[in-house]
Amino acid sequence: MTRRVPPLVPRMREHAASIFGEMSTLAVETGSVNLGQGFPDTDGPQSVKDAAIRAIQDGRGNQYPPVHGLPELRRAIAEHQRRFYGIELDWTADVCVATGASEAIVATLLALVDTGDEVVMFAPWFDVYAAGISLANGVRREVPLTPGTFRPDVDALRAAITPRTRLLLLNSPHNPTGVVFTREELTAIADVVAEHDLLVISDEVYEHIVFTGHEHVPFATLPGMAERTVTLGSAGKSLSMTGWKVGWATGPSDLIHAVRVVRQHMSFVSGGPFQWAVADGLALPDEHWRSFAADMQSKRDLLSAGLIGLGFAVTPSEGTYYVTTDVGPTAYADGLAFCRDLPSRAGVVAIPQQVFHDDPTNGAPYVRWAFCKRPEVLHEALDRLARALP
Ligand SMILES: *Cc1c(COP(=O)(O)O)cnc(C)c1O
What we know:
Distance between the termini: 52 Å
Bound molecules: pyridoxal-5'-phosphate
Helix content: 40-55%
Shape: globular
Strand order of the largest sheet: 2-8-7-6-5-3-4
């Protein structure tokens, strides 16, 4: 070959491998129960599926929908924020529909972060955040959550802020740990944000998967935060339709305008018929949202109790699809070694936390297990673990 031009820009090389790709390949090769990837194995509501089918049949959304999202969906998103949180939005200017929250994350970072700007986030972080910051030529600064409890260390956050810090990337309910930040924690974080005049991306895609005794507090509802926060939501997570790739960003019109400018040049539009269906889904009655969270909570209970029974140290999951264990009681040096061995040894796949850190020592002993699966699948995984791990 005479071509010597390297194909991948240097700033993206560290993002070449994905743990989800590696572990899903292992899952297929070994016929493992896959508790690695975070998607439910039961679809969202039938009425929402029917709405998508109707939209296709009626010719609604089969051609390019409006660039920043179907008006009906933007109205439904604004109404959802008002109904659940008392947040008042102008649907014409304060809402932007995206190809999943993933696109909204990257578009928002590209819109708000310039070359050399620093972005602070708690570790472990979601892998799209790190890649998105690199795409924007930004610099990431991680602040480890307290090992074991995974509570945010606000003094450490304050210490990580420099004159170059432009934005804080927050995620609660938190993937991968399963913690839900309390109002007190978020208020202390908001003080740091105000002190340093930061922008905020608040990734709240698990807003409806919060368990008894815990509360989802949207960051934008804290005093002074609405004007500086872009909030992200996802129909994938909230309506259990991860393949539909409908997400959104909401916030003050000047920030959302910036996101729109960038995002329109990414996917332009997507998911026309799905946007109609998601508009219907967001208006489902309170009972639906209660039973959705309760169902996920029963799955959390099943998997958590099983893992405790096997001798794992489990950090209680307060929300999301995930529960975290410490591999300490096993013979393994760390979570990565454990997870690489587990498919062939036990026929189960889980995700090591350390790959979501710049400094892997902080996440070394921890493993993320997804419980958003049918009870029989969780039982099968636990049976396999019990047979393989004496
Ligand atoms: C799943 C997930 C997303 C992405 O949502 P999509 O709508 O599927 O793109 C974003 N943030 C977190 C923390 C997630 O777990």
